[in-house]
Amino acid sequence: MSFVEMTEAVFDVSGDIIPPIYQFALWDALVQHAPMLADDPHAGVVPLRTSVSEAGMLLAKRSKLVVRLSLSMADNFAELANKHLEIGGATLHLGSGRLRKIQPYSTLHAHLVASDKDEVAFLEEVSKRLAELGVDGKLLCGMKNSLADKDRTIQGYSLVIHDLKQDDSLRLQYAGLAEYRRYGCGIFIPYKVITDLE
């Protein structure tokens, strides 16, 4: 199977407290400034590092906004440089940005892999997809979770895949799993502690 090689556009990000469900509005704001994102079916947004407060979600110190792009689209990432993104009444400020090559890691984690199945069927579904991708790894299914606003709901599970070889790790990060990568779903990132699936 052939793969679309991906890269990451990484931006320093600062700003206000953001809503707990920010993912839909964030994608809309990104596309507003960089319409080419909507033309890249492989594009995805790595979930922001945040902490919960009574007022909403606080950005972690030295937070980054990371957008995964097809390598063929990489030259367009500068369209997002130094932009202000309106997210549900909050504003996120992006820095100038840079491109970062995706690196292989033996253990990867996705916060939410979309699925409406029960856990057993979900893992069967994931195993089948990994076989199609030619990826061999061990699965640890985490909590069932959802991403929802007043218009839509995405259900699924957190997932750790470990004991990955380098090529398999890159394939998985390039391809992702299931739908809704633009909202941070099925995006795999390095994960160091496989005993903590929250």
Describe the structure.
Helices cover 18% and strands 34% of the residues. The protein starts with 5 loop residues before the first strand and ends in an 8-residue tail after the last strand. With 198 residues, it is an alpha+beta fold. The strands form three sheets. Strands 1, 2, 5, 6, 7 and 8 form a six-stranded antiparallel sheet that branches. A four-stranded antiparallel sheet has the order 10-11-9-12, covered by helices on one side. The protein has a two-stranded antiparallel sheet with strand order 3-4. The chain folds into two domains: 95 residues, 2-Layer Sandwich (Alpha-Beta Plaits), CATH 3.30.70; 83 residues.
Topology, pairings included?
Blueprint (H helix, E strand, L loop, with lengths): L5 E10 L7 H11 L10 E2 L4 E3 L4 E3 L4 E7 L13 E4 L2 E5 L3 E3 L7 E7 L4 H15 L4 E11 L4 E10 L3 H10 L13 E2 L8
Antiparallel strand pairs: 1-5, 1-7, 1-8, 2-5, 3-4, 6-7, 9-11, 9-12, 10-11
Q: State the CATH class of the largest domain.
A: Alpha Beta
Task: Tell me the series of helices and strands, N- to C-terminal.
Answer: EHEEEEEEEEHEEHE
* Dominant shape: globular
N-to-C terminal Cα separation, in Å? 32 Å
Low-pLDDT residue intervals, each spanning 5 or more residues: 194-198
CATH topology of the largest domain: Alpha-Beta Plaits
Task: Provide the CATH architecture of the largest domain.
Answer: 2-Layer Sandwich
Portion in beta strands = 25-35%
Over the alpha carbons, how many angstroms does the gyration radius reach?
16 Å
Number of domains: 2
User: How would you sum up the major sheet?
Assistant: 6 strands, antiparallel
Structural category is alpha+beta
Estimate the mean pLDDT confidence: 92
